[in-house]
Structures are given as C-alpha cells and as structure tokens.
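Protein data sheet
==================
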Amino acid sequence: MNARHSLAFTIAALSLVALHARADSDRDRERDRDKDRTTTVDCAAGDTVARALTRGDERKSLTILINGSCSEHVVINRSDIKLAAAAPGATISGPDPAIDVIRVTGTRVTLDGITVTGGRNGITADGAAGLIVQNALVQGTGRNGITYAHGASGVVDGCRVLNNARDGVAVDAASGSVINSQVSQNARMGVGVFNGGTARIGIDNFNVAGGNTISANGVNGIHIVYGSTALVAANQVTGNGTNPSAAFSGNGVNIANATANVIGGNTISGNTGPGINLRSGSVNLGDANFDMSTVNTITGNGNPTFTGGISGFLGSALSIRDAVISNNVGFGVVLAVRSTAQIGNSTIQNNRAIPGAVPGTVIAGDGIQLQRGSAVLGITPNSNVTQNDGFGVNCTDLESSVANTAALGIGINARGGVACTGF
C-alpha cells in the first residue's frame, strides 16, 4: 500500500508540474504577443521589406529596421507598423515608374528616417488613418513625393521633399499636417490641398508653430483648391514659379474656390506671381486667436504678367490685418471683378511701377487698386499706405469704391492719395 500510495503521489506531483509548466508557457506566449516585434532587413543580403511584413502576429505591432538600399515596391496593409532606418542612408527605391514606392492602407503606420526615391508616388496613404512620415528624404519620384488620398490622415514632420516630378506633398480629399519640413524644387506645387482636403501647413495639431521652407517649386508654393481649407503659419514661402512654361503664375500661396487662414509668421517673398493669389476664394490674414505672431510679410513678388503682393479675383473675399506688403511688382493689393477686402493695421508701401507686358504700357505701382466693381474697407487700427509708385488707392472704374479711407492711413504716394469717385 505504501508503495502504491508513493507511486500515486509521484504521478500526481508530476502532473501538477506539467500543468504549471503548460500554464507558464501559455502566459509566456501571450506576453510575447503583447510585445512589439522588431526585425531587421539587410538589403545587401537580399532581404526585403515586403517579406518582413509577413512576420509576426498581424494583430500586434511590428518594427522593421532597414540596413542599406532595397530596390522594391512596398504595400503596408496591416496596422501598427513602424518602418525605420537602422543606420543613416537606409533607402527604398522603386524600380517601376508606374507603381508607388510605398503604399499604405493600414492604420497607425510610421515611416522614420528613411530615403524614398523612384517609382510613381514616393509614399501614398490610400485611406490610411494616422500615417506619420518623419525625418525622411523623399526625392526623385515620378509624380508626387508624399500623397494623402481618399480620406487618409497623418503628419509630415521634419522631412525633406525635393525634386519630385509633380507635387512635393499632396493632400487630396484627405487630412494632413506638414510641419518642420523643406519642400523644394518640385516640378509643380510645393504643398497642394485638393478636392475638399484639409491641411495644417506650418502649424501642428496642438496649434504650435512648426514652420516649413517651401521654395523654388515649379509653379505655386502652397496650392489650396476645389473646396479645400488650410491653416498656414510660420512658413518661408520663397522663390516659387521656377518653371517658365507653366500655365500658372508661380504664386506663393494660391487659393481657388477654397478657404485659407494665413495666421501669421509667414514670409512670402520673391515668387514670380503674386505672393497670395485668390480666384473665387477667401482668406483671413492675421489671426489673433492663436498663440503666435499675426504678422505676415509679403514682399518682392510678381512680374509684369502676374502682378501684385496680394491679388483677389472673381468675387474673392479678403480680411487683411497686421500685414507688411512691400516692394511688390505692379501693386500692393489688387482686387478685380467684385472682389472685396477689409484692411486694418497693415503697412502697404514701396510697391513698384514697371513696364507692362504690352509694349508702351505701365503698371502703376498703386498701393491698392480696385477694378470692375471691387471694394475695400479700412478698419481700425489704422494702416499705413505710403511711398508707392502709383496712387495710395486707385479705382479704375465707377463701380469700384473705397470706404473709411482715414483708417487706411493714406500717406504720400507718387501719383496721389485716393483716386476713386464712388458710384
């Protein structure tokens, strides 16, 4: 009996140990599933990002570190992925110009510190929520550098987006923020917001300034069109309009059938077209509701064909406060075809007369010019409209008008103060 009891006790004890071991193993596996997985892709050894994306539990996060330069096209259709450089120079190059280099459809994806080149678009978020592209270089793609489309959302932060064959960053029927980045030398737009898109350009999701340099793009620096809206703050928007054959004028900020809040802290200078150009659009310059500068500096913009520091056309509506509008070609502010503006606490000076595009004509250099039933209203605090080559305010037809000229602060201008007869 004692032997049998001893054997039974031993068997029971061993069973209990086995049960505990199995339970511990199950807990270990569950704990492992909860951890982030990290894997490294060595491009020189023939590893690929696409293969790495098949590893691990797709319900859990995965970090993929890249060494070297991989030639491939990557589709990220799972969520909670981080694709990062293991060392400087980590690159993904797309060999097929008809296919995006990186296409993201999963949510909460981060691309960090990598270089992307070749392919069609460099990086596309197609309906993907929360795509973060940070510390990346996106250059030499066949179309756009970075695109958010079809309801996608995310942030471009601390990136360089250069020399792409179309737009630098495009937000198309989507939502995106572009902060702390350089967007330069792209063939068409620097940052484009299209088809009801919403964007923050130079201001993050916490309303903190994170200005960009948007320069030397072929057409417009910032392009907001077709029902879109944008907040624009703290940017250097300079020298855009480098493509002489472009159908557009090379504006610093272009707003067409869209709305923008140009909060402040922007320097918009040296663009071949107007610093800010509107067609059936609306803009608010200088917004004190944000904890940052409300001053926008618009200087040295325009050419004989596309003139003005600020140009409003075809029923555009402008509110201009705390602006410095100086040394622009042709006009400081020009409004045409029933466009309207209210102007307060702004300086409009030293805007220059030049020979017109038609031989024998001169573009007068007015501080403010009103055409075809347009109107301007001066508001307090008073502005300063002075030292322009033309009139302080010039109405070119009987249907254009100016009100409250005292608040406009008309000073000494080369051709006179106010040349408006009213209705």
User: Anything to note?
Assistant: Residues 98-419 form a domain with the Pectate Lyase C-like fold (CATH 2.160.20).
